[in-house]
Every structure is written in structure tokens, then in C-alpha cells.
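Much of what follows relies on a compact textual record of a protein's fold. A record is reproduced here so that you can trace the correspondence yourselves:

. . .
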Amino acid sequence: MKKFFAFLTALVISLCSVSLTAVADDEYFTQEQIDYYKNLGLQGTTVNVYNWGEYISDGSEGSMDVVSEFERLTGAKVNYTNFESNENMYSKLSGGGVSYDVIVPSDYMIDRLIDEDMLLPIDFNNIPNMKYINEDCQHLYYDPDQIYSVCYNVGTTVLIYNKTLVDEEPDSWGVLWDEQYKGKVLMFNNSRDAFAIAQALLGKDFNSTIEQDWVECARLLAEQKDKTNPVYVMDEVFNLMESGEYALAEYYAGDYLLMVENNEDLGYCFPKEGVNYFYDAFCIPTCSKNKRGAEAFINFMQEPQVAYENSEYIYYRSPNITVENNEESSLYGSEVIYPKEEIKSQSFKNLPQNIIELQNNLWTQVKSGKLSAENENENRRIYTECAVIGGAAVVVIIAKMISSFRKKKEQDLSDLYD
């Protein structure tokens, strides 16, 4: 009997030891966190997440696989897909026939989605990690009452250059128009960011409602196409700049840090004319079919361990105060992410529908070359030739009419004498 009790005692201790070891061995989360997500009742459900490319820690190079960890803790399945631009994401949502539970639009697009009743209010009782969001990233201008969004990242645009191909360190967007770099320039392939560069150069408001302002910027972008023949890209910018083939590009500050890791010849600057200061945030679209799962995912993304891993992977400023104050962070004290001096900047806001349509139309014309000087010169040549041909035709017609009139008059006189 003593042996039996000894065996039983040993078994209990062994099981407890295994259980404690399992908890202690969890690489990222406490038992409290594990229990919280397990008890949400999301087992067997699906959460559809629609995010930017390269915008979440995915397990590569020893990083946390955020999606897999969420699935592990909740028992839910995540269907994770990417978009390249806010406009691309908006087109998908407005076109209907899709169901996303979590989207990550930028400030001005959130503004538009709210105006068009395309977002659901978030139940912040289900977002306890809101306590970690820095105050300067709450109640922002696009969601002043903090109803529809939870900030994910903060950043700016920057000018990126290849030190081996650019003669002098640039300080202006104007270098993107320098003809010596023809064929070596990469340009934003989305209208809002591209127009902002032209607006900065011309001293225009990024959110101007004056149509002529947009027309002038379109002409400047068309001039760039004539002078440097830029390649319009989004995420392709990583490989192209890292390869050393191109001299100049503009993209987002955090992405520059990723590029320079693979090409030390790359440099950056905040152009003197000003940059776009932006916020990206988690939102729940009205097409969501798993709002509770969406809120769980949004909350999970602000767990200190998760926010830190995401920041280390994508190199953007996190609104999570535990990340910003973490001296072990790769970004701690980074002047690209946390500039010591105040930089000139503007933020995007939602535009009136007539301006949005004008912008889209002008952007199409810029990219197609219809606004280029060469195209205008060709049009003038055609108009001139048509005018000359038309004028000659008129002269011929008038001459024929005069000749006909004379013949008729001579015939009438002949008839009169007869």
C-alpha cells in the first residue's frame, strides 16, 4: 500500500511538474493571457484580416508568427490577405461581395469610411489593451470620439537615395525631376502619396479643395514623367532599391530601415518642402461576420509582446507605450522613427467626392502620358495640320463657289442676249 501511495504521489508531482513546465515554457505569454484568449469562445470560428503587405511579424528570421500565435491561443482560424494601397482596399470593400473582419486603413481612408457608414463601432470593453495606447495616438482627427479605430502604427514618408548613384545628398523632392536620373527613379503608385509630393513642391495644401491646385500638381507630375520616366511601384520598391539598380525612391520611413539592412549604400532625408505624417489603424468594416473575433484580434495586436514583435519586424513607430519605452527595442532612439528635430509635415484628410474623382482622373492621365509635354506638342501639331488642311479646304470650296457663280452669271447674260 505504501508503494502504491508513493507511486500515486510521484505521479501527481510529475503531472504538476509537466503542467508548470508547459506554462513556464510558453515563449511569449503568461497563463493569465493564455486563459483570457482561450475563454473567449472563438474556437472553430474564422477571422478575416485584410492588411498591408509586409505589415505584420510573420515568423521569419526568428520573429514571432503573430497570426499563428493568435490561432494557438484562441482556437480560431485567421484568413490573412494583403492590399497594396488604401484605394485598392476601398475598391474591394465598396464593390461588395467580400467579408473582412479587420482592416488596416490609413487616416484619410478611415475618415472616408466613417463618412460613408462603412465601419462598425468597436466595443472597447473587448479591447482591454487600449490602456497601452499612447495618449497622442488616441482621439485623432479622423476619429475624434474614439469609436471606430485603434491605432496600429505611425509614420512619415521619406526620400530614399542610393549614395553610389546620387552625386550629392538631396534635401528636396525636386531631385525626382532631375533629368540626369532618367530611368533611375521610383515613384509611388498611388495617387494620394504621389500628388502629395507635387503639392509639397508647389506649396499646396495636401487636402486642398481647389480644383486648379490639383490640375497644377498633375502637370508637375506629368513633367516628371517627361524628364525622368519614373517607374510606379509600391512594395516592389524593396527589391528594386535593395538591388542597387535605382537612384531615387520615396516610401515610408520604417520601410527605409528594412531596405538599408540589405543595402548599406542607401540614405534618406526628410525633404525640406514637407512630408506626409500618417496613422494606420485597425477598424472593423460593416461587412464583418465575426465582430467578436475582430475585437479579439485587435486587442491581441496590442499585447506588449505582440506589439514589440511587430515593431521589430516592420520598423514603424508603435503607439504602444510599452514598445516606445523599451530600451531594448531596435528603434529606441532612432532618428528615422523618432526624429530629434521637428520635421515639416501634413496629414491626409478625406476629400470631397468631386476632388477624389478629379484626382483619380488626373492620375490616370499622368500615368498614361496624356498630360505630358510631348503629348501636348503632338496634339498642337495635329491641330495645326488639321487647321491648315481645313483652311485649304475652305479656300478650295470658296474658289469653286466663285467659279460656279461666274459661270452661272455668264450663262444668264448669254440667255438674256439670245
Observations:
- The beta strands are 46-52, 77-83, 102-103, 150-162, 186-188, 231-233, 248-252, 266-269, 275-282, 345-346.
- Confidence is low (pLDDT under 50) at residues 1-24, 377-390, 392-397.
